[in-house]
Specification:
- By secondary structure, the chain is mainly beta.
- Helix content is 11%, strand content 30%.
- A hairpin with a 5-residue loop joins β7 and β8.
- The longest helix has 14 residues.
- 39% of the residues are buried.
Length: 511
């Protein structure tokens, strides 16, 4: 019988000390004690990773492929993988008989054994290599699939979701199965290589002073408030960094840096009656829900496909009647969204729930319209709304709609634009006006006591000053945003435009 250690020969006879690793610590041991985690950037089959992890130790504690006991630990591992740049990693979960210590579930099902032939196969049949309780799962939609009854190992991908995959075991390894005879088929014919994370369950009462602590950023960070919007309008501020990483953790860190003044990124704000915005050069028509043409994003540059755009939205929504509501987001990349302090209790489409903060739904990826939905219960009254979206190279676009009721699967819903109480067929609005040529502005100074607020008198004064040449004029305005030497105060929208889009009044301009 072929020994499983033969895999070490196939991958180059690697020893545990030959592998490159990054080491971090986090308080995910029993009662919040500190464990050590080592990221090993050496793709190997799962069965080889098991042996390589066991050959390593830290402070006298033997290693094991990482186990995941909570949503907080899963979020930590997701961020660790992103930090070190290896998005997919093996974890120490298996449904291969004999590959992990025996356990019995609450309903009397023994594990590990082939899960796909059991009821509740997301839970039954699976066991951790350490023998610890199996109390948390984070399977991707449709997983575990156990294709061909031959996926007895588990990997965590970049989004933190779990997928089963080939373990690399030969037939009837590590033991001949008795719970389900003939279920341990060969998984070595097309074995899969992945990096892995080693966990040392040190359970230290205090953190190790020499090991970095990796703190997971919130998926919905503190967001810059943007301009003060009119009642009933959303305020949307565009940030234009040089490039955008659509991974949700990267976006969260970037927005936090902007909020704290660490990153200096240009910002442009505007107010909108509904959440239906797009780069017109990338998305001319409406939809997929709102069929009228979307409004241009605040930072739209006409005639170009806007790339690397992060849009941050704030507003207050009015809920006329208490009940269950479904929020749907279509956008050109990643997003995160919160409505007050109300937790989402169900998700659908491509949405993810931030399990460490269930007020937040999000998606991190590059679908052109990921069609993500979240369900929550809203009391009657006013609730603050916060969201951000990010687009890299597909063109900026966001459409947020709502439906009263529970519709995680998008069947039978009457979707309305967020911010509107009208029926879809009755919605119509005009796009903002644009300057087709530079505008001109004139200042005329008056002697004390000569002020007037009558429009006809103002016209006469300006016309006379232009005629005799005493008016101060500038005719180079690309935007009608004017200020004095003290700038624009009080959070008004123009204050968030770049300096090149703000103009001094002629009377204040030394040029």
């Amino acid at each position: 019988m072929r020994d499983r250690f033969a895999w070490l020969i196939l991958v180059g006879a690697l020893s545990a000390d030959d592998l490159f690793a990054d080491i971090f610590q986090a308080p995910h041991g029993p009662d919040g004690t500190w464990n050590v985690y080592e990221s090993v950037d050496q793709p190997v089959p799962w069965v080889a990773a098991v042996d390589l992890a066991a050959a390593r130790s830290w402070d006298g504690v033997a290693g094991t492929i990482v186990t995941v006991g909570s949503a907080a630990e899963n979020a930590f591992l997701e961020f660790l993988a992103h930090t070190v740049g290896q998005p997919t990693n093996w974890i120490g979960l298996t449904d291969r008989e004999g590959a992990a210590p025996r356990r019995v579930s609450a309903d009397g099902v023994e594990a590990p054994q082939e899960s796909n032939r059991l009821p509740d196969h997301e839970w039954n049949g699976w066991a951790w290599l350490t023998g610890e309780p199996f109390e948390y799962v984070n399977w991707a939609p449709g997983e575990p699939r156990d294709v061909g009854f031959a996926e007895d190992a588990v990997e965590m991908r970049a989004d933190g979701r779990w997928h089963d995959n080939l373990s690399g075991y030969a037939e009837n390894q590590p033991v001949i199965p008795v719970l389900q005879p003939n279920s341990s088929i060969s998984e070595e014919r097309t074995f899969v290589n992945q990096a892995f994370i080693v966990e040392y369950q040190t359970a230290s009462l205090e953190p190790y002073p020499e090991i970095p602590q990796l703190r997971v950023p919130a998926k919905m960070p503190d967001l810059l408030p943007g301009a003060v919007g009119r009642p009933g309008f959303l305020t949307v501020t565009d940030y234009r960094p040089r490039e955008v990483d659509l991974q949700i953790q990267s976006l969260s860190v970037l927005l936090k840096d902007i909020h704290n003044g660490i990153r200096d990124v240009s910002a442009i704000s505007a107010q909108y009656p509904i959440a239906d915005l797009a780069d017109p050069d990338a998305r001319h028509g409406g939809g997929p829900i709102i069929e009228v043409a979307p409004l241009p994003i605040p930072s739209d540059v006409e005639g170009t496909r806007d790339q690397a755009v992060i849009s941050v939205g704030h507003g207050t929504i009015r809920v006329p009647e208490e009940g269950w509501y479904t929020i749907q987001v279509n956008n050109g990349g990643s997003f995160a969204l919160q409505i007050g302090d109300q937790p989402f209790i169900q998700i659908g489409g491509n949405a993810f729930l931030d399990e460490t903060d269930p007020r937040t739904i999000y998606y991190g990826g590059s679908f052109s319209a990921p069609n993500s939905r979240g369900v929550l219960h809203l009391p009657r009254g006013h609730h603050p709304l916060r969201f951000y979206t990010a687009a890299a190279d597909r063109g900026a676009f966001v459409e947020i709609t709502t439906a009263k009721g529970v519709f995680p699967e998008d069947t039978g819903a009457q979707w309305l634009p967020l911010g509107s109480t009208e029926q879809l067929a009755e919605i119509s609005f005009r796009s903002p006006l644009r300057l087709v040529e530079p505008a001109a502005v004139a200042n005329v100074t008056q002697e004390s006591g000569g002020e007037t607020s009558r429009l006809s008198e103002v016209h006469a004064i300006v016309d006379e000053a232009l005629l005799v040449g005493t008016a101060l004029v500038r005719n180079d305005l690309e935007t009608v945003v004017l200020k004095d030497q003290d700038g624009i105060c009080c959070g008004r929208p123009g204050a968030h435009l770049s300096n090149q889009d703000q103009y001094l009044w002629p009377v204040n301009d030394p040029a």
